[in-house]
Amino acid sequence: MSEMQPHPQALFTELDDGTGVLLHLETKFYFTLNPTAVLVWKSLGDGASTEAIAGKLTAAFRVERDVAERDVTAILAEMLSGGLVLQKQG
């Protein structure tokens, strides 16, 4: 999957329990994020590559690297279909 970046019209709020909420200002849809998706979203905001995000998941949740890579790919695919992320240009 090509590298992604957060959509500028998606607002993120992290909740005390480690989950989060994204509101897409253009569509007015909101999305709930589990702790794994929160880590992915915050890492995208920091400019991390999908490979680097998988490494963070491996460390944070003590999962195998291949599982983390599949999770990142699945989460980004869902975020892309919801219009929450954009493919990086150039």
Describe this structure in words.
This protein has helices spanning 35-45, 50-61, 65-81, and strands spanning 4-6, 10-14, 20-24, 30-33, 85-87. The protein has 3 helices and 5 strands. The two termini are 15 Å apart. The strands form 2 sheets. It has a 3-stranded antiparallel beta sheet with strand order 2-3-4. A two-stranded antiparallel sheet has the order 1-5. Strand 2 (10-14) and strand 3 form a beta hairpin. The protein is of the alpha+beta class and 90 residues long.
Estimate the strand proportion. Answer: 15-25%
Largest sheet: 3 strands, antiparallel
**Can you tell me the residue ranges where pLDDT is under 50 for at least 5 consecutive residues?**
none
| Major beta sheet, strand line-up | 2-3-4
Order of helices and strands: EEEEHHHE
Mean pLDDT: 94
Structural class: alpha+beta
Describe the global form.
Answer: globular
Helix content: 40-55%
C-alpha-based Rg, rounded: 12 Å
The rounded distance between the terminal residues' Cα atoms is 15 Å
